[in-house]
Predict the structure.
Amino acid sequence: RKEVEQDPGPFNVPEGATVAFNCTYSNSASQSFFWYRQDCRKEPKLLMSVYSSGNEDGRFTAQLNRASQYISLLIRDSKLSDSATYLCVVNRDDKIIFGKGTRLHILP
Amino acid sequence: EPEVTQTPSHQVTQMGQEVILRCVPISNHLYFYWYRQILGQKVEFLVSFYNNEISEKSEIFDDQFSVERPDGSNFTLKIRSTKLEDSAMYFCASTTGSSYNSPLHFGNGTRLTVT
């Protein structure tokens, strides 16, 4: 089983819609969790950290479920500029592992 | 906002040649990383570096790879004898403390093309 798994997509979503991604991780000792976004041929950029209590940043909400070992990202009122690949990132003992990413296309 | 900078942005080299990829992490950061991303594939961890030594490395980071922090600012990745399959985007990253809850800040990457 891969250490971090994501649905690769693509998710094709009309502008203004709500979209949600999940990510599962296999190692229960994983310590911290992040969502990054990556535009084509660019470096990954931090979108948000993910906390057990859940956290929100504007249109973005992240949740962590340690019991089931998954994290989620919800994007509300999606914009054309949200089109990107969203990377689930898990840290265990200073080894930070990236998922393959979920591609999101926002359609006008 | 301080940034991680990487040079060159694109490096073309012949198979068997040595390459050095350079990074200047953010100045008050203590943990440094190299990642690579083959075109169309996932971002893969290569190595983490703290207190002038490697703290973790992946199976990709074999004897052909080495890292160095030769002075107070640069962090380099050397590939001794490049192979075609080393062609990828190489990202340097740094973070303030342990990566536990400290997110990575990435440089713009160096695209390495091995011919």
About this structure: Chain A has a mean pLDDT of 92. Chain A has no helices and eleven strands. The interface with chain B takes residues 31-32, 34, 38, 41-46, 49, 87, 89, 91, 93-101 of chain A (CB under 8 Å). The CA atoms of residues 3 and 63 of chain A lie 18 Å apart.
